[in-house]
Amino acid sequence: MLSIELPEDVSNRLELLSLSTGRTMQFYIKEALLEYLEEVEITYDEEERVNEEHDCIFDELNHEYGNENGLS
After folding, report:
1. Residue 23, number of CB atoms within 10 A of its CB
2. Backbone angles phi and psi of 22, in degrees to 5
3. What is the model's pTM?
């Protein structure tokens, strides 16, 4: 079980939404957290891909030009 303390204004908004829609506060918290995690995972995966591409480009340039300039 996880316990979180929300700011009062967020808690009030969540409670009003819950009452208005008939869905539980837990439902909205879970949905929001799942959506956020998915966005963070996608961002992390994209950053990893870009870093790998940069590493490959650097390695190619270093291989092609590094030896000519005494670099390794």
Report:
1. 12
2. 80, 5
3. 0.63
